Amino acid sequence: MSDGWKIREASYSAETAKAYEGLFTQGSGYLHVRGSIEEHFSDTPQNVTYTRMPANVTSEKFPETKAKWGTYVPGVYGKHPLLNWELINLPWFLEIGPTVAGERLDMEKSRIEGYTRELDLASGTLRRSLVWQTESGEIEVTFERFASAERKHVFVQRVTLSSKSAIEVVISGGIDSDVRTNGYDHFTAVELREFEGSGVECSVTTDGGDTVRTVSRFTAPDADWKATIEPRRATLSSCLLIPAGGTLTVEKRTAVTTSRDIDLVDAGDVLREVAGMSFEQLADENQLVWDERWRNSDVRIDGDPEGQLAMRTSLFHLHRCHVPDDDRVAIDAKGYAGDAYFGRFFWDTEIYLLPFFLYTDPDRARTLVDFRVRTLPGARDNAADYGYPGARFPWESDSFGRESCSLWQYRDHEIHVTADVVYGMVHYAVATQTPGFLVGDAADVITDTARYWIARMDRRPDEEHPSILGVMGPDEYSPITSNNSYTNRIVSLNLAIAAQVGQATGVAEEECAAWAEAARALPVLQDENGLTMQCEEWEHFAEPDFERFWLDRSKTFAAQVSQERLYRTKCLKQGDVTMMMVLFPRDFTDEEAKIAWDYYLPYTTHDSSLSAGTHAILACRLGLSEEAWKFWRMSSGIDLDIKHGAVAEGIHIASSGANWQIAVNGFAGMASAMETTTLTFNPKLPAAWTRLAFPVVWNGCRVQVDLNHTELTLTNYGECELPVVVAGREATLFPTGILTFSYKKEG
Questions:
Q1: Can you give the pTM of this predicted structure?
Q2: How many C-beta atoms lie closer than 10 Å to residue 450's C-beta?
């Protein structure tokens, strides 16, 4: 690793290559490419066909391979024979392979010295440097590349080769469409050809009905490019000279366009538009976009270099994954960095990802809530498929809102996602002060989901309250339970908001009254000792006996026991009641939250990457500084833990969102707009941190927050007057004003 802006790979290893591919994924929002090395490997084919079966991804074993290409355009889906709709891995275009005297550069076979590779988070630029000892002499090689944040279709590459003596080198590279997605070939037609003498192009038609065109063009001094066209691969090559004591520079630019683009453009035309621009000009305009992003969102952490790098890594991938000005897609669960979660959208969108954009760039947050508005027809179809009226959002959604989850226990029972969608819409409306959104664009979503919930409820004999039975809450190790408290609480919000929206939009008074009554009556279970119960069945489950069955704590509990044991045992994949307490903090006293913490924590496996973030935030509320720090480390370190390679199959993008929330809502103690209309802070800074600083947007005003262990300063860059509360003290932050609050250091 490197400083707070660069992730550094100090040496090459086949054992960690795939993990770095995931971590070094680059993207423009529209286009995403895993961090595969340009010359690839001679013994790692990417056209291996295999059958990936439906499985619990947490404990699933993926094919062992040292490299996995990945090129993704959000929204380009195909139908897998067993796994339903999945994001398609598109043709790979990164290849730039130098060959000297018959020896092609190969990280495992060539003699390599001085290897480094760095991802510059400030600009999204990936640089790799090495010294290649060839039979003809020593060559210094540097690869550079970035996905243009300014020109979303464009990917830019450059390789420079330097030598003390004159050496001839053959540069070859092109586009390879012989790739698979989860072992399956989604291309129904492939066309390859030469492009204007110095390029190649590839057009593929997918089984989802989309056409994707990829065009790559090389430039180099005195190059005479020769094209080789094979059935699934198009390659250019040219013999070039590295001058003695000088440098040879070769550039490759690629454009990708699809038939589903909002503004239809031709990939060839895109390349022609940038033909007169230098690498530096393209890099400069890309940097300007990233500079603006970082101004609006950077979280500064002093005293914890590891934490600083982890935070900026999270923010980089959050920015990269957001598709600008396109509400037809959201952000997929692997951050468009791998095949593992099939490019689908989960409750992550509203609960873990939306808040970052909502408080740093509300316009970009709007596309995430509008995605659910757009996919309402799919949610209606989904409800109808189950025999219900209204709308039921899918547990795993593709870009059309189709339920794509292949495992029945999640697909049929993890229905809280429908209410999570409404929670996100309410959060957006209150944070941006746009109540008109709820009675306007979101109204049909809110009322149709309420109709689903009323039909989904049961009334059991001798009980006055309605019940929601046969559900799975956030804890996926407790299936088909009754009155899951998290589900009931978030559904009650859905119904209460629906009653208000319905009254404002002309829904029958009787129907609105039924929604309001059900919202009040749905139980959140609590025992006589003040323990909030996860569900009715919890106390009847078996004790987990972790000491006997969870022998290797470096691996998930689910990977070491059967699903049958998970489903009858008191073990949590992630916090369930604790998640509810984070989303609805005003519903529970600190005493009630502490009772739940003490009771459920010993049962929680944290097998889900989402678990640590929730626990860190709740620990901050409860003043549990050591626990908060432990869970911050756990959450922030998931994708930077190269040794264990969790990032090999893609970014844990929901954890990226959670990391921002830990810093802002946890350690800085900022209350969300779901809790209060007043900008409020209750700082709980970790002992190791000497400073925490970040910008937020509150009521349309951009405010810079800067705090240490004894002071918090707010700077208002907006034109609005803001009431604020810091550590219990009230004040007014005037336009362009600055306020500093002093308080005692924790502990």
A1: 0.97
A2: 32
